[in-house]
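From the methods appendix. Each design record in this collection lists the tokenized structure first, followed by the designed amino acid sequence. Records were kept in a plain field format so they could be parsed without special tools. The example shown here is representative of the layout used throughout.

RECORD:
FOLD TOKENS (324 positions):
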């Protein structure tokens, strides 16, 4: 079986990642199914890790710059950097397709199980991007939420939409503030449950003044844009929870009835996925002493936030009509 090389030589995305896999490798179909499932996977870049880690430098401070007078020395201000490392984490999953199902349905019986697993892994990856917290589970990487905790006014990366108990309707003014907290923002990530609210607000030019638009993504799916950035919501309705359900407790307390919106810079030098061991789908054949046919899924990945201003979060949002 032909597999991807262990090093991604240049920054790429998952669409190109899939194209680099041999057409006869079952991994390619598996990855293509994942991309089809998750708009987050279609958007996020991916870069190589080495020895399980991605090392980079983020900006600590910029150098000073200034004029000089005649016969005076030139300015010697230097900037400073923080040396950072991000880890990759291990996935080893197995698909056990029942021999009787394969006998009845042929290869389709096994393929159906593999497609279900690809859907589950795409949703799991998308959930990791947002909620994964290494302090709560050392087996997982840090996603966006645990990195958005600085509530410093104007310069932080965490804003409360409504400080009242139970939160409140999304304020476009707060969404504007969120946008301007991020260095070179590329996408919004919002609750899927809010998308009908955007359909409604798009018809109200008095409120949005043509800042909401409809377009198509790279695979021809309809998307909504606000301030020129595509709105991602994870994946279509399924039997698993939405990527961003309304189950968070607002900053001001109350019931778990609110959610969050993220603004992110998905790019090299911003926020991206990292990979040590390529995703691979390896048929293993019949399992000894069991009536199952086994397929092994392995993948070592994590996330890196290279620019300190690559993402920001707006919390305490209820599923109500959007306001100014």
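DESIGN:
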């Amino acid at each position: 079986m032909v597999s991807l090389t262990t090093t991604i030589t240049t920054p790429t995305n998952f669409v190109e990642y899939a194209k680099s896999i041999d057409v006869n490798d079952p991994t390619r179909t598996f990855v293509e199914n994942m991309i089809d499932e998750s708009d987050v996977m279609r958007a996020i870049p991916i870069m190589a890790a080495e020895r399980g880690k991605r090392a980079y430098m983020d900006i600590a401070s910029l150098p000073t710059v200034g004029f000089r007078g005649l016969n005076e020395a030139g300015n010697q201000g230097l900037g400073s950097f923080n040396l950072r490392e991000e880890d990759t984490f291990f996935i080893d999953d197995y698909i056990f397709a029942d021999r009787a199902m394969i006998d009845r349905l042929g290869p389709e019986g096994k393929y159906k199980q593999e497609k279900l697993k690809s859907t589950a892994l795409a949703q799991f990856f998308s959930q990791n991007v947002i909620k994964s917290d290494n302090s709560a589970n050392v087996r997982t990487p840090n996603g966006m939420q645990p990195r958005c905790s600085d509530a410093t006014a104007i310069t932080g990366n965490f804003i409360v939409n409504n400080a009242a108990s139970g939160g409140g309707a999304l304020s476009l003014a707060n969404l504007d503030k969120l946008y301007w907290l991020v260095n070179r923002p590329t996408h919004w990530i919002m609750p899927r449950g809010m998308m009908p609210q955007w359909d409604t607000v798009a018809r109200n030019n008095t409120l949005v003044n043509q800042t909401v638009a409809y377009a198509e993504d790279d695979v021809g799916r309809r998307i909504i844009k606000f301030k020129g950035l595509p709105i991602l919501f994870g994946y279509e309705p399924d039997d698993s929870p939405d990527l961003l359900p309304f189950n968070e407790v607002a900053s001001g307390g109350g019931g778990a009835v609110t959610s969050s919106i993220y603004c992110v810079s998905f790019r090299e030098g911003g926020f991206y996925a990292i990979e040590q061991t390529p995703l691979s789908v390896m048929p293993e054949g019949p399992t000894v002493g069991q009536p199952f046919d086994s397929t092994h899924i392995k993948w070592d990945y994590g996330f890196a936030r290279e620019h300190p201003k690559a993402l920001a979060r707006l919390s305490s949002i209820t599923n109500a009509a959007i306001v100014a």
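APPENDIX NOTE: The radius of gyration is 23 Å.
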